[in-house]
């Protein structure tokens, strides 16, 4: 007879096997539920060749897990938490995720309860051969008596929520696996210690992860999360975290930097994980790594378009393996880099403020599914912003085919933690690419220039008479004449560029009986028309400045004021704000006074006309005499400034002549005009600004609106100094502005006259930019203007086109007791905030102006290229100077066109970072090596090619001399 | 209360005149009635008249949550009202068949033909979008109500400007008052215009049916078949509506389409001039 053994379950086990609880049904009845589960002790762990667990027939996990991950060199298995499946199912399904997976029964059941579709996908995943998943029934596993004491079947503790119980079960499971492996492969005496693979708990739940770390379970998280605001503020206060603006690197989209005060160099953020979804311009909180982990900035050019062109817009993203592959691009570590090159490196832990706005983009044509124009289905496409600093934006639209080839405005809505790209939506279309209107509008939008027409409320702020307004006749009770001096008899004249309509300033000078000279600068009295709390004032404050594009001018104030009522036109009376000095013949100031006035300009000269008039010895009238006096004084003033160490830096001004015919070249690069009259106006404007600065600082030490130029940090010049020393043997002394000016004067190359200009241009780039500031926010020794070598400075002389000048006018008027100062200008926070806006607008306006010039240069180059193609005169070539070196290319500056370009090498090259040279082996005439170094003159061939994807006309430069570098 | 069917005398008189290619009000067969338009003080408020038929159209915009399935698109609703003011046949409070038909046609013409770009009405995806509400009130119905209503709607949509909205950092939305910042016109892909024809059976065998453009009251009631075409000045057909009635040969239909295309271009030119004139008068923006 067969022996039957009846084994009775032991009573102690009842605690694990039975679960009793009371449940309330929908009808309101209370029923008692008893659930029993039966535990076994032979639940297999699933690893191949495990000594203990009987290996069953199905696929099991390899002995050592996956051995190719750098964090776990001995091999690892992954034990995912529920949230990983719920949120990143695609990652787990992807063929890139090759680690063997241990699936706990707890996890499977949780997934089933949360989402049936995901559960189905998970089951399908398990069946795949290449996936190597093993289902471990941890709920059924009983303790094994003599080998380990822990079970994996876990009972809910009192007060534990079901979710926590599951989390604990998962942790217990992971811990059990790790001990199981170490116990089943004990070291045998005489043989080498076997290396043990680790089981890694993969979870995104912060709580779970922290608890796991406490219990010493190896774990990892799939992606970076943000810290809570409380943690962020605490970290900042404690000094461990820092705050700053995030700046993307325009040459490498996987790198960014944040400038913080605590470190002299900006903190680098390398890699997508460390940048953690920050976008250019956001205010972020960062954590800085230890010094051993600091890296040097990359010297490789990594282009977002070419690297990511195979990304699919629709796929939800795969972090993990894909990133590891991309970022294996070799970084120059340790050895060949001097220590000083290393910069603090860190990562973003939180975003304080997003500064997103609408961006001008093109639709990436490769990301479209169907390009039939009648397709109205919703598609997810990529929009590539025109600015290189921004990431691609994913957006859904139904008009994608119609929008190809157009410039569009897209705004970002959010950037999920699971997503590689930010998501956004379509705002409006600007027009076909390369059409005038679309390009112009796109330029203005890229730099956030407010260009919409003024509203009706602004119109109501203008004087009712409109164009017919005149200065009212003098009278005791006329409000416009209150406290104004009548300077109409004076010989005042204005000197401006040709074609100038908004005349801000006018000058005069005359001899006094006591031998001194009275000189005066008169500025348009804009603050008489633009009163604080006006809608016009609010709009002007938002605009900050007038923007000058090549073919258009976006006014800060309505044209009626700018070109007529405020403009100091000749032959009419106008209101003005005057600064009048009594100067010795040596141009030393004896007395200064400020007054509101009424003037009548006698003449409006251009620089050239004034120069001619001054030089014309036949003319001896008062007006000409006045100009000559001003000139002599200006010369002395300038000499004084140069002696004090003012800098004379070069920035080439590219002028575009729009009205020249197609055949002649519209581009003309002019250096700044060097006529005496230019210098005259400049010197007196500077003098006026300085005098006003002193006055308002004295009157309002807390809230005066001033302008400063910080001395550049020595670090900015390091590279230039190094290059000059190594290539030309010229030292550059940057200890003070005077020393720098003297050094620059000595940078001459007798063979190359343009060398000095080139060095000046490069020095200009090392400078910081000047900015407006509020006097109470900054210590007095930081007031100075480095470039002008003046201890204090402000902007006073152009209120028509700069808002800061309007504020200065108001403060000066209060300082001379003409009127009371508006309450807002007594508040430091308000002034700081307004100046922030003005500074930003000023920067944007500069960039917009430059971009406009570049656009026209591109057009002209295209025309030239076409012309040379038809005339078969060969490629368009120009001389250029090398100004910067990268690992895979050089940055050149074409002086004749005033543009920069990047030349990447297609051949084999050897890059020597220390000597700033590139060696191209065997490419010279006789087969010798050709060496290209910084400051060398080369010839490049320039063409404008239309990028297929972005539809941008890109200036492409290829090396022509010393070697022809073609594909 | 429905007006009584036309009397036999009226019918005979009409058809006799038609046989001689004469219309009751002296127009040519393909001659439309006089157009008139006047703009209210608000932007988007328009009263349009076609002969004696008068329609009032008003466009309004407010910010709402978008639909869950279409988080990137704004909403457009069209609402029509034919009150007894328009004619004694319309009863107050009850939706007459004509009202429903009118609402449906306008919906097809303006909303479903994607005349207005809805994606540009999005402010924050998934949270806030513009909801445009176009309401039509018929003031007087003397035939051709659909033509007049669609012209009024097109005018109102062209004339309307919504306030400028600034979104900062994907969270804050600032709506600027239309006096401080100039308001923004709606982005329209195309402007459809509606043209109606009335058809009458041919007088004899083997002849073609006769076609009248812009039928007035009696002509509409006596028509054997009605054809309504909505098209853009660029010769794109938006809606073709022929519900029953006299069967038409393809040549007649195409003929009607050609006439309608010319008419649409005329309407567009006329509307453009009038809208611009009114904007200039209102001084909507200062440059």
From TrEMBL, chain A:
Q: Where, subcellularly, is it found?
A: Nucleus
Q: Name one GO biological process term.
A: rRNA catabolic process
Where does the record locate the signal sequence feature? none
The molecular function terms of the Gene Ontology recorded here are:
3'-5'-RNA exonuclease activity; endonuclease activity; RNA binding
Q: Which UniProt keywords apply?
A: Exonuclease, Exosome, Hydrolase, Nuclease, Nucleus, RNA-binding, rRNA processing
Q: Which GO terms describe its cellular component?
A: cytoplasmic exosome (RNase complex); nuclear exosome (RNase complex)
List residues of the RNB domain. 484-818
**Family annotation (Gene3D superfamilies):** 2.40.50.700, 5'-nuclease, Nucleic acid-binding proteins
Annotated segments matching region Disordered: 298-341
Q: Does the keyword rRNA processing apply?
A: yes
Q: Does the keyword Nucleus apply?
A: yes
**Source domain of life:** Eukaryota
Q: Which SUPFAM superfamilies match?
A: Nucleic acid-binding proteins, PIN domain-like
Instruction: List residues of the PIN domain.
Output: 76-210
Renumbered to this chain, the Basic and acidic residues biased-composition regions fall at 321-331
Pfam families assigned: OB_Dis3 (PF17849), PIN_4 (PF13638), RNB (PF00773), Rrp44_CSD1 (PF17216), Rrp44_S1 (PF17215)
Membership in a protein family: Belongs to the RNR ribonuclease family.
* Official protein name in the record: Ribosomal RNA-processing protein 44
- Look up and give the organism this protein is from: Multifurca ochricompacta
From TrEMBL, chain B:
Species name for this entry?
Answer: Multifurca ochricompacta
GO CC terms for this protein? cytoplasmic exosome (RNase complex); nuclear exosome (RNase complex); ribosome
Q: Where is the Exoribonuclease phosphorolytic domain?
A: 32-161, 191-262
Q: Which Gene3D superfamilies match?
A: GHMP Kinase, N-terminal domain
Give any Pfam family that matches.
RNase_PH_C
In its keyword annotation, does this UniProt entry include Nucleus?
A: yes
Keywords in alphabetical order: Cytoplasm, Nucleus, Ribonucleoprotein, Ribosomal protein, RNA-binding
Q: What is this protein called?
A: Ribosomal protein S5 domain 2-like protein
Under InterPro entries, the record lists: ExoRNase_PH_dom1, ExoRNase_PH_dom2, ExoRNase_PH_dom2_sf, Exosome_comp_Rrp42_subfam, PNPase/RNase_PH_dom_sf, Ribosomal_Su5_D2-typ_SF, Rrp45
Stated family: Belongs to the RNase PH family.
- Signal peptide as annotated in the record: none
